[in-house]
Write a structure and sequence with these properties.
The complex is a heterodimer of chains A (295) and B (247). Chain A has 295 residues and is mainly α. Chain A has a domain at 27-118 and 143-224. Chain A has eleven helices and two strands. Chain A is globular. Chain B has a single domain, classed as Rossmann fold. Helix content of chain B is 36%, strand content 26%. Chain B has a six-stranded mixed sheet with strand order 6-7-8-3-9-10, with helices on both faces. In chain B, strand 9 and strand 10 (224-230) form a beta hairpin. The chains are: A mainly alpha (295), B alpha/beta (247). Chain A binds chain B through residues 172, 175-176, 178-179, 181-183, 185-194, and chain B through 65-67, 86-88, 90-92, 96-97, 99, 103, 105-108, 112, 115-118, 120, 161, 164.
Chain lengths: 295, 247
């Protein structure tokens, strides 16, 4: 087999795959954040906790009710999405007339509370969640070994991201959403129920995070802190892509996952910080983000 | 119920008044902008609100549409009190608003902008009829909304509220900043809309334009309607009007 700059292809492609996996989670999470920020003008710091809740709900469904992975893939986002709807109606909606900072503080506090509750109940050692039998094993692609479940995560993330993009950019509902993002007052004056649109958007963004959580459950162990670790990187991804840009968050999510993977191959010491370095550079050169519209 | 309100109810029951605005007060935050606006609009009429900058004309339209957060008084549309209703409910009752800044959405194509306001009742224009009024729009459907010229954006802003079936159109300075030939086209459009049975409340700075399209003019000053002039009586009232408007 060929070697690239002294790197065995197995290692290279292995890291690229890992990068794509991480990129899938970045994309799903930053997409939800972007949708929420666009319409609600709130930086949803609870997002990581809601991703974690997705994984936990999947675990609970399996262990308490015997509901399998495939059903959890649908049920967990719906359940966590509903908790999001309740949070929005009960708490966040009271802050829209205030500065963004209050929404950030509220959602940050909520994240701490939710993580604390789960930590208290389940500890921090992590709970195992088995890969569904249909996706166990892997394929030898010749140049690398592809575990089926990882291939599935990348594929389904891509499909969900593109479907979300399609709904937002190409449908009537998406047009309402985009218009309400620009000028909610006028959209309301056309007879559209903007508060309900906002609630549903928040619920949907949260459901996306929970969906990512279910996908993550068999890869990483189900752990109350799993979201807190990830969300900081996801915020960097959102900043790089541009707050509120749908396609931007998808492309930067997958792209940065790959770049991170490549860094791990060629300069492993830098892999933990490469995204933040890119963020700093983007902020210097294009403060609105790569795909953001300057305000 | 006060005597005035009872009389009002009886009045609107006769069907002579589509919109009855009585003693409406309005605020932007702490600042009290409307100080008891009262006027009537009959079905099928075109009336203008004339007045100097800051007199409260736009705010009056916003109060009627329900997008002025703090408002008091009475606004009866089509026999229904709307003062406490949210904007979306007022829109569904059949009032549509075309804002001064036109409100074309940059992230929507021309077609999406046009199709955005949902149908609230039957009787709106079809898309084909809107294209007859504004042929320019048809050629630009896939463009980004804000890539249109100012005149085309104004046509789009008016066009999109004609689809909805709203009976009462609130147009805020539709001729502002437009070339004379476009102003003329919008004037023709308003005349056609009147013939089609729309009722229109128009805020205008362009007094000559207002005179060319309206049945009546309400003069707004310091948050009140201080005078009414029928368009037929305009000639004989020009001096008075000039004094009001300070032109």
């Amino acid at each position: 087999m060929f070697e690239l700059l002294g790197i065995p292809p197995q290692a290279l492609f292995g890291q690229l795959l890992l990068g794509l996996i991480n990129g899938s989670f970045y994309a799903l999470l930053s997409l939800g954040l972007a949708v929420i920020f666009g319409l609600l003008n709130i930086i949803n710091f609870t997002h990581g906790a809601q991703y974690m809740m997705g994984a936990f709900v999947a675990w609970m469904l399996l262990n308490y009710l015997g509901i399998n992975y495939w059903a959890a893939l649908v049920l967990a986002p719906v359940i966590v999405g509903i908790t999001g709807v309740i949070i929005e109606r009960l708490l966040i909606s009271r802050l829209y007339h205030l500065d963004h900072l209050y929404g950030l503080l509220l959602t940050f506090g909520l994240a701490l509370v939710i993580q604390g509750l789960f930590r208290n109940e389940y500890g921090i050692s992590g709970l195992p969640y088995q890969i569904p039998p249909q996706l166990s094993g892997g394929m030898n692609l010749g140049f690398m070994f592809l575990p089926n479940y990882r291939g599935w995560v990348v594929a389904v993330s891509l499909v969900v991201c593109l479907a979300t993009w399609f709904v937002i950019e190409k449908t009537r509902l998406g047009a309402y959403l985009r218009a309400a993002t620009e000028n909610p007052t006028l959209v309301g004056a056309f007879g559209i129920n903007v508060p309900r649109l906002i609630t549903l958007t928040y619920g949907f963004g949260v459901a996306l995070a929970a969906f990512a959580g279910v996908l993550a459950a068999p890869i990483y162990s189900v752990n109350p802190n799993m979201g807190a670790d990830l969300i900081i990187v996801v915020f960097a991804v959102v900043v790089i892509g541009g707050m509120g840009s749908i396609l931007g968050s998808i492309i930067t999510g997958f792209g940065l996952g790959l770049i991170e993977g490549l860094t791990r191959v060629f300069y492993p010491e830098g892999s933990a910080v490469v995204i933040f370095v890119i963020m700093a550079i983007v902020l210097l050169v294009k403060p609105a983000g790569l795909f953001g519209r300057a305000a | 119920m006060t005597e005035a309100q009872l009389m009002e109810r009886a009045h609107s029951a006769q069907g002579s008044s589509l919109l009855t605005v009585r003693d409406v007060h309005g605020w932007y935050g702490e600042s009290h902008v409307l100080h008891g606006v009262s006027f009537d609009v009959h079905a099928g009429e075109v009336v203008t609100l004339l007045g100097r900058n800051g007199a409260g004309k736009t705010t009056t339209l916003k109060a009627i549409m329900g997008i002025l957060a703090k408002r008091r008084g009475s606004i009866v549309f089509d026999g229904r009190e709307t003062i406490g209703l949210p904007a979306r409910t007022i829109a569904r009752a059949g009032i549509a608003f075309c804002p001064e800044e036109r409100g074309i959405f940059a992230s929507l194509s021309v077609e999406e902008n046009l199709m955005l306001p949902p149908k609230v009742r039957d009787g709106g224009l079809s898309v084909e009829q809107i294209f007859e009024l504004f042929p320019n729009l048809k050629e630009r459907l896939s463009s980004q909304g804000t890539k249109l010229s100012g005149g085309e954006q104004q046509m789009l802003a008016i066009g999109r509220i004609l689809r909805t079936g709203a009976k009462l159109l609130l147009l805020d300075e539709p001729t502002e900043g437009l070339a004379p030939v476009i102003v003329q086209q919008i004037g023709h459009t308003i005349a056609k809309l009147k013939r089609a049975g729309f009722t229109i409340v128009l805020v205008e700075q362009n007094f000559r334009f207002a005179a060319s399209v309206a049945d009546r003019h309400y003069v707004v000053e310091q948050g009140r309607v201080i005078d009414t002039i029928r368009n037929d009586d305009l000639e004989s009232n020009l001096d008075k009007l000039h004094a009001y408007l300070g032109v």
